[in-house]
Input
Amino acid sequence: MTSNIVDGMEEALVKSNIRRSLVVGPVMALVVSGCLGGSSNSTQPPGNPTAPPGGTAPASAPGSGAGGPSSAEPATGTINVWFFPQGEAAEAALRVYETQFEAANPGSDVAYREVPEGDPYFQGINTALQGGAPPDVAVIEDRGWMQAGLVEDLSQYFGQWGVTAEDFNPGGLARGTEDGDPSTPPIYGVGDFLGGNVLVYNKALFDAAELEYPGTDASMHISEYVDLCNGLAQPNADPAQTIYGCAMPEWGFGIQGKDVFGPDGRTPMGNIDSEEMIAAWDMGTQVIRDGNAPSPDSLEQASESDLFAQGRLGITWTDFTEIPKYQDNDI
Output
Protein backbone atom coordinates (compact mmCIF):
# COMPACT_ATOMS: atom_id res chain seq x y z
CA MET A 1 0.00 0.00 0.00
CA THR A 2 1.14 3.55 -0.55
CA SER A 3 0.40 6.11 2.06
CA ASN A 4 2.22 8.49 4.28
CA ILE A 5 2.55 9.46 7.89
CA VAL A 6 3.11 13.18 7.51
CA ASP A 7 0.29 15.55 8.36
CA GLY A 8 -1.34 17.08 5.34
CA MET A 9 0.14 14.97 2.58
CA GLU A 10 -2.37 14.62 -0.22
CA GLU A 11 -0.57 12.23 -2.51
CA ALA A 12 0.68 8.68 -2.25
CA LEU A 13 4.03 8.46 -0.56
CA VAL A 14 6.52 8.01 -3.35
CA LYS A 15 9.94 9.52 -2.98
CA SER A 16 11.99 9.81 -6.14
CA ASN A 17 15.58 8.74 -5.56
CA ILE A 18 17.41 10.83 -8.06
CA ARG A 19 20.77 9.49 -7.00
CA ARG A 20 19.69 6.17 -8.43
CA SER A 21 17.65 7.63 -11.24
CA LEU A 22 20.71 9.34 -12.69
CA VAL A 23 22.29 6.01 -13.51
CA VAL A 24 20.36 5.55 -16.74
CA GLY A 25 17.75 7.96 -18.00
CA PRO A 26 15.48 8.01 -21.01
CA VAL A 27 18.64 8.52 -23.05
CA MET A 28 22.17 7.30 -22.69
CA ALA A 29 24.15 10.49 -22.25
CA LEU A 30 27.67 11.29 -21.14
CA VAL A 31 26.90 12.01 -17.51
CA VAL A 32 30.54 11.56 -16.55
CA SER A 33 32.87 12.80 -19.24
CA GLY A 34 36.51 12.17 -19.89
CA CYS A 35 37.77 15.64 -19.04
CA LEU A 36 40.90 14.19 -17.48
CA GLY A 37 42.09 12.46 -20.60
CA GLY A 38 39.32 10.34 -22.07
CA SER A 39 36.54 8.21 -20.64
CA SER A 40 35.78 4.68 -21.73
CA ASN A 41 36.70 2.96 -24.94
CA SER A 42 33.60 4.42 -26.59
CA THR A 43 34.39 5.83 -30.03
CA GLN A 44 31.81 8.57 -29.66
CA PRO A 45 33.30 12.10 -29.47
CA PRO A 46 32.73 13.71 -26.03
CA GLY A 47 30.72 16.54 -27.58
CA ASN A 48 28.14 14.33 -29.24
CA PRO A 49 25.15 12.98 -27.35
CA THR A 50 24.02 9.44 -27.86
CA ALA A 51 20.70 8.87 -29.52
CA PRO A 52 17.70 8.15 -27.33
CA PRO A 53 16.20 4.65 -27.49
CA GLY A 54 14.01 4.48 -30.54
CA GLY A 55 15.88 7.04 -32.61
CA THR A 56 17.17 10.59 -32.67
CA ALA A 57 14.83 13.41 -31.74
CA PRO A 58 14.86 16.31 -34.19
CA ALA A 59 17.04 19.26 -33.29
CA SER A 60 14.06 21.55 -33.69
CA ALA A 61 11.97 19.73 -31.10
CA PRO A 62 9.59 22.25 -29.57
CA GLY A 63 10.26 23.68 -26.17
CA SER A 64 13.90 22.68 -26.00
CA GLY A 65 14.94 25.66 -23.96
CA ALA A 66 18.55 24.91 -24.90
CA GLY A 67 20.81 24.99 -27.89
CA GLY A 68 23.35 22.34 -28.64
CA PRO A 69 24.49 20.33 -31.63
CA SER A 70 22.13 20.27 -34.58
CA SER A 71 22.23 16.50 -35.00
CA ALA A 72 23.12 13.43 -33.01
CA GLU A 73 25.28 10.65 -34.36
CA PRO A 74 24.83 7.03 -33.31
CA ALA A 75 27.06 5.92 -30.47
CA THR A 76 29.59 3.17 -31.15
CA GLY A 77 31.95 1.20 -29.00
CA THR A 78 31.48 0.32 -25.36
CA ILE A 79 29.29 2.55 -23.20
CA ASN A 80 30.32 1.94 -19.60
CA VAL A 81 27.54 2.43 -17.05
CA TRP A 82 28.10 2.28 -13.29
CA PHE A 83 25.15 1.88 -10.95
CA PHE A 84 24.22 0.91 -7.40
CA PRO A 85 22.63 -2.45 -6.55
CA GLN A 86 18.91 -1.78 -7.09
CA GLY A 87 17.14 -5.10 -6.98
CA GLU A 88 15.75 -7.35 -9.66
CA ALA A 89 12.94 -5.08 -10.87
CA ALA A 90 15.13 -2.01 -11.44
CA GLU A 91 17.91 -4.03 -13.02
CA ALA A 92 15.41 -5.62 -15.39
CA ALA A 93 14.44 -2.10 -16.47
CA LEU A 94 18.09 -1.29 -17.09
CA ARG A 95 18.35 -4.34 -19.34
CA VAL A 96 15.45 -3.00 -21.40
CA TYR A 97 17.34 0.27 -21.82
CA GLU A 98 20.39 -1.70 -22.90
CA THR A 99 18.49 -3.62 -25.56
CA GLN A 100 16.73 -0.55 -26.94
CA PHE A 101 19.84 1.59 -26.91
CA GLU A 102 21.96 -0.96 -28.71
CA ALA A 103 19.22 -1.45 -31.31
CA ALA A 104 19.10 2.31 -31.94
CA ASN A 105 22.89 2.58 -32.02
CA PRO A 106 24.36 -0.29 -34.10
CA GLY A 107 27.93 -0.97 -33.10
CA SER A 108 27.40 0.05 -29.48
CA ASP A 109 27.72 -2.19 -26.46
CA VAL A 110 26.28 -1.12 -23.10
CA ALA A 111 28.41 -2.55 -20.29
CA TYR A 112 26.97 -2.36 -16.79
CA ARG A 113 29.08 -2.38 -13.65
CA GLU A 114 27.41 -2.72 -10.25
CA VAL A 115 29.31 -0.93 -7.47
CA PRO A 116 28.26 -0.98 -3.79
CA GLU A 117 26.67 2.29 -2.71
CA GLY A 118 28.59 4.57 -0.37
CA ASP A 119 32.37 4.80 -0.08
CA PRO A 120 33.15 2.04 -2.61
CA TYR A 121 31.19 3.87 -5.29
CA PHE A 122 32.39 7.36 -4.37
CA GLN A 123 36.04 6.34 -4.17
CA GLY A 124 35.74 4.26 -7.33
CA ILE A 125 34.47 7.21 -9.36
CA ASN A 126 37.13 9.52 -7.93
CA THR A 127 39.85 7.03 -8.80
CA ALA A 128 38.46 6.62 -12.31
CA LEU A 129 38.30 10.40 -12.78
CA GLN A 130 41.87 10.85 -11.58
CA GLY A 131 42.99 8.07 -13.88
CA GLY A 132 41.31 9.67 -16.86
CA ALA A 133 39.00 6.71 -17.48
CA PRO A 134 35.63 7.35 -15.81
CA PRO A 135 32.44 5.58 -16.86
CA ASP A 136 30.30 7.21 -19.54
CA VAL A 137 27.12 7.09 -17.46
CA ALA A 138 27.05 7.14 -13.68
CA VAL A 139 25.41 8.54 -10.57
CA ILE A 140 26.66 12.00 -9.66
CA GLU A 141 27.50 11.76 -5.97
CA ASP A 142 29.48 14.97 -5.56
CA ARG A 143 28.62 18.46 -6.79
CA GLY A 144 32.36 19.08 -6.83
CA TRP A 145 32.51 16.92 -9.96
CA MET A 146 30.18 19.40 -11.66
CA GLN A 147 32.06 22.44 -10.40
CA ALA A 148 35.36 21.01 -11.60
CA GLY A 149 33.99 20.43 -15.09
CA LEU A 150 34.30 16.67 -14.83
CA VAL A 151 30.75 15.89 -15.97
CA GLU A 152 28.82 16.74 -19.10
CA ASP A 153 26.20 19.48 -19.34
CA LEU A 154 23.17 17.59 -20.63
CA SER A 155 20.91 20.61 -21.11
CA GLN A 156 22.61 21.38 -24.43
CA TYR A 157 21.05 18.18 -25.80
CA PHE A 158 17.50 18.75 -24.58
CA GLY A 159 16.48 20.13 -27.96
CA GLN A 160 17.52 16.95 -29.73
CA TRP A 161 15.78 14.76 -27.20
CA GLY A 162 12.56 16.76 -27.35
CA VAL A 163 12.47 17.48 -23.62
CA THR A 164 12.72 20.52 -21.39
CA ALA A 165 13.76 21.00 -17.79
CA GLU A 166 10.05 21.38 -16.97
CA ASP A 167 9.48 17.77 -18.01
CA PHE A 168 11.36 16.56 -14.92
CA ASN A 169 10.60 16.81 -11.22
CA PRO A 170 12.27 20.11 -10.21
CA GLY A 171 13.44 18.82 -6.84
CA GLY A 172 15.04 15.79 -8.38
CA LEU A 173 16.54 17.69 -11.30
CA ALA A 174 18.03 20.21 -8.85
CA ARG A 175 20.37 17.52 -7.63
CA GLY A 176 21.92 17.50 -11.09
CA THR A 177 22.93 21.16 -10.87
CA GLU A 178 25.77 22.99 -9.19
CA ASP A 179 23.61 25.30 -7.09
CA GLY A 180 20.32 23.43 -6.80
CA ASP A 181 18.57 25.64 -9.37
CA PRO A 182 17.25 23.64 -12.35
CA SER A 183 15.67 26.67 -14.03
CA THR A 184 18.83 27.53 -15.94
CA PRO A 185 21.61 25.43 -17.43
CA PRO A 186 23.97 23.77 -16.95
CA ILE A 187 22.14 20.62 -15.88
CA TYR A 188 24.37 17.61 -15.44
CA GLY A 189 21.94 14.81 -14.76
CA VAL A 190 18.56 13.58 -15.87
CA GLY A 191 16.90 10.37 -14.85
CA ASP A 192 14.00 8.03 -14.96
CA PHE A 193 11.86 6.93 -12.05
CA LEU A 194 12.95 3.39 -11.21
CA GLY A 195 12.06 3.20 -7.53
CA GLY A 196 10.00 4.65 -4.76
CA ASN A 197 9.63 4.84 -1.03
CA VAL A 198 6.37 3.31 0.10
CA LEU A 199 4.74 1.71 3.08
CA VAL A 200 4.01 -2.01 3.15
CA TYR A 201 2.06 -3.86 5.82
CA ASN A 202 1.82 -7.42 7.12
CA LYS A 203 -1.73 -8.68 6.59
CA ALA A 204 -1.30 -11.54 9.07
CA LEU A 205 -0.49 -9.12 11.89
CA PHE A 206 -3.44 -6.92 10.94
CA ASP A 207 -5.73 -9.96 10.99
CA ALA A 208 -4.41 -11.06 14.38
CA ALA A 209 -5.05 -7.60 15.80
CA GLU A 210 -8.47 -7.44 14.08
CA LEU A 211 -7.55 -4.16 12.41
CA GLU A 212 -8.70 -3.01 8.99
CA TYR A 213 -6.07 -2.84 6.30
CA PRO A 214 -4.94 0.68 5.38
CA GLY A 215 -6.46 2.06 2.22
CA THR A 216 -4.35 2.41 -0.90
CA ASP A 217 -6.18 5.39 -2.35
CA ALA A 218 -5.48 8.04 0.28
CA SER A 219 -2.73 9.12 2.62
CA MET A 220 -2.90 8.57 6.34
CA HIS A 221 -2.71 11.30 8.92
CA ILE A 222 0.09 10.77 11.42
CA SER A 223 -2.47 10.08 14.14
CA GLU A 224 -3.98 7.25 12.06
CA TYR A 225 -0.56 5.74 11.50
CA VAL A 226 0.25 5.93 15.21
CA ASP A 227 -3.07 4.28 16.13
CA LEU A 228 -2.29 1.37 13.81
CA CYS A 229 1.24 1.15 15.16
CA ASN A 230 0.02 0.91 18.75
CA GLY A 231 -2.68 -1.61 17.82
CA LEU A 232 -0.27 -3.92 16.00
CA ALA A 233 2.53 -3.90 18.58
CA GLN A 234 3.03 -6.98 20.74
CA PRO A 235 5.57 -6.07 23.47
CA ASN A 236 7.55 -8.87 25.07
CA ALA A 237 10.04 -9.01 27.92
CA ASP A 238 12.33 -10.83 25.51
CA PRO A 239 13.41 -8.26 22.89
CA ALA A 240 13.91 -11.08 20.39
CA GLN A 241 10.20 -11.90 20.66
CA THR A 242 8.88 -8.34 20.47
CA ILE A 243 6.65 -7.52 17.52
CA TYR A 244 6.78 -3.86 16.64
CA GLY A 245 3.76 -2.13 15.22
CA CYS A 246 5.57 0.07 12.76
CA ALA A 247 8.78 1.74 11.76
CA MET A 248 9.13 5.44 12.55
CA PRO A 249 12.26 6.79 10.85
CA GLU A 250 13.33 10.31 11.72
CA TRP A 251 13.52 11.25 8.05
CA GLY A 252 9.91 10.20 7.49
CA PHE A 253 8.51 13.45 8.81
CA GLY A 254 10.25 15.52 6.16
CA ILE A 255 9.60 13.35 3.14
CA GLN A 256 6.73 15.55 1.95
CA GLY A 257 8.42 18.79 1.04
CA LYS A 258 5.41 21.07 1.23
CA ASP A 259 4.92 20.28 4.91
CA VAL A 260 8.53 21.17 5.65
CA PHE A 261 9.27 23.97 3.21
CA GLY A 262 5.78 25.20 2.34
CA PRO A 263 3.92 25.09 -0.98
CA ASP A 264 6.60 27.22 -2.66
CA GLY A 265 9.39 24.91 -1.50
CA ARG A 266 11.33 27.83 -0.05
CA THR A 267 9.80 28.74 3.28
CA PRO A 268 10.77 26.49 6.19
CA MET A 269 9.89 29.00 8.90
CA GLY A 270 6.23 28.64 9.72
CA ASN A 271 6.10 25.19 8.13
CA ILE A 272 8.83 22.99 9.54
CA ASP A 273 8.13 24.51 12.95
CA SER A 274 4.37 24.59 12.59
CA GLU A 275 2.07 23.24 15.27
CA GLU A 276 1.10 20.39 12.93
CA MET A 277 4.70 19.30 12.39
CA ILE A 278 5.50 19.58 16.09
CA ALA A 279 2.46 17.43 16.92
CA ALA A 280 3.56 14.88 14.29
CA TRP A 281 6.99 14.62 15.89
CA ASP A 282 5.47 14.29 19.35
CA MET A 283 3.21 11.43 18.26
CA GLY A 284 5.87 9.71 16.18
CA THR A 285 8.57 9.73 18.81
CA GLN A 286 6.11 8.62 21.50
CA VAL A 287 5.60 5.22 19.85
CA ILE A 288 9.36 4.69 20.03
CA ARG A 289 9.44 5.68 23.68
CA ASP A 290 6.56 3.27 24.33
CA GLY A 291 8.47 0.46 22.64
CA ASN A 292 5.90 0.01 19.89
CA ALA A 293 8.37 1.02 17.19
CA PRO A 294 12.05 0.07 17.09
CA SER A 295 14.58 2.65 18.14
CA PRO A 296 17.56 3.47 15.91
CA ASP A 297 19.77 1.56 18.36
CA SER A 298 17.71 -1.61 18.08
CA LEU A 299 17.86 -1.44 14.30
CA GLU A 300 21.63 -1.67 14.49
CA GLN A 301 21.16 -5.32 15.45
CA ALA A 302 18.52 -6.14 12.85
CA SER A 303 17.69 -4.14 9.75
CA GLU A 304 14.20 -2.80 9.28
CA SER A 305 13.58 -4.92 6.20
CA ASP A 306 14.77 -8.05 8.00
CA LEU A 307 12.41 -7.43 10.92
CA PHE A 308 9.53 -7.07 8.49
CA ALA A 309 10.53 -10.22 6.59
CA GLN A 310 10.62 -12.09 9.92
CA GLY A 311 7.05 -11.05 10.70
CA ARG A 312 8.15 -8.85 13.59
CA LEU A 313 7.12 -5.49 12.13
CA GLY A 314 3.58 -4.51 11.20
CA ILE A 315 4.24 -1.62 8.82
CA THR A 316 7.55 -0.56 7.33
CA TRP A 317 9.00 1.91 4.85
CA THR A 318 10.67 0.26 1.93
CA ASP A 319 11.55 0.54 -1.69
CA PHE A 320 10.91 -1.91 -4.46
CA THR A 321 14.34 -3.53 -4.11
CA GLU A 322 13.23 -5.28 -0.90
CA ILE A 323 10.03 -6.80 -2.29
CA PRO A 324 11.65 -10.11 -3.35
CA LYS A 325 12.82 -10.63 0.25
CA TYR A 326 9.27 -10.20 1.52
CA GLN A 327 7.88 -12.51 -1.13
CA ASP A 328 10.47 -15.17 -0.27
CA ASN A 329 9.28 -15.04 3.34
CA ASP A 330 5.58 -15.18 2.39
CA ILE A 331 4.88 -11.70 3.76
Q: What stands out?
A: The beta strands are 77-83, 108-114, 198-201, 244-246, 313-318. Confidence is low (pLDDT under 50) at residues 1-67. The longest helix spans residues 87-104.
